[in-house]
C-alpha cells in the first residue's frame, strides 16, 4: 500500500531557518517537500503567490521567509524591513487560506516583545510596552504576522500557529560584514583577525547586555514539534488571542561572555575590547520557555557546541557566506 504523504511548502527554504526546517522534514517518510527559490516564485507578488497555491496542492506551510538583519541593517533600512515582511506574510497567509490550506506555522522573532519586558519574557508580554527603537519596524511586521494567524483562526477556523524564537544562529546564516546579526558578525570578524594576525578585535557596545541564543537546528526541531501537536494539545497551552509560543534555551549570557567564547572557538588569541560609543540595544532578552517545555520539547545544542558548528560551516563556505 502506498503511503499518503503530506505536501508541505517551506517558504524561505534557502535561508538559515528554512533550510534547517527542510533538513528536519526531509527525514519524514510521510512528507513531500515543496520548495521554490526566488527566481521561481516571487513572494513579494500577490499574483505569483496566488498562482502557486492554486496549482501546488499544498497541505501545510512553514512560513520561514523574511527579510532579516542586525542592528545596523534595521537602523539603515527600516522601510524595507517593515514593508517587505508585511507583504510576504500577507501574501502567503492570505493565499494559504484562499486555497484551503488548513495548517500553517508562522516563524516570528523575540523582538516582538517590549524593550523593558519583565524577564524572562512570557508570551503574554506582547503589546504591553514600547518596543526597542532600533528594530521596531521589523517587530511590528512580525506582530502583524501573529495577528494575521490569530485572525484567520478566529474568523475562518484555520489552524495557523506561531512560534517566536530567540536569537538564532547556525549554518547558512548571513555573514554580511554590516547587515548580519551578532554571532555571524563576530565569527567573521574574529576569523578575519586571526587570519590577519590582528592584536585586537573591538566589539560594539559595552558587552553588558544579556542575550539568549538558539542553534537553528534546535529551532527547526521545535517548529516541527509544535506543528505536529494535535489541535487539542496545542489549544490547551494557548489562547485565542495569545496563540504564539516562545522557542529558546531558557539560558542567556552577556555579549562579553559571547565574544570571549567566540574568540576561543575561532582560536583568536588577541585582546577583545568594547566600543561604548556604539548602541547596546535591549539590556536583556531572555524568553520564558515553560510553555514549550510543557508541550514536550526543549533545546539540546549547547552554545559552544553550536558556535563550533556555525564556525565550521563559515570556514568551509567563506565565499558563499560573503555574497549573502
What does this structure look like?
With 324 residues, the chain is an alpha/beta fold. The protein has a domain at 6-174 and 213-249 and 286-301: NAD(P)-binding Rossmann-like Domain (Rossmann fold, 3-Layer(aba) Sandwich), CATH 3.40.50.720. Helix content is 43%, strand content 16%. It contains twelve helices and 13 strands. The protein has helices at residues 16-26, 46-56, 71-76, 78-98, 136-156, 182-196, 216-228, 231-236, 255-266, 290-294, 303-316, 318-322; strands at 6-11, 31-34, 60-63, 103-107, 159-165, 167-169, 200-204, 210-211, 213-215, 244-247, 253-254, 271-275, 284-285. The strands form four sheets. It has a six-stranded parallel sheet with strand order 2-1-3-4-5-10, with helices on both faces. It has a three-stranded mixed sheet with strand order 11-8-13. Helix 5 links the parallel strand 4 (103-107) and strand 5 (159-165). Helix 4 runs parallel beside helix 5 (136-156) and helix 9 (255-266) packs across helix 11 (303-316). The mean pLDDT is 93.
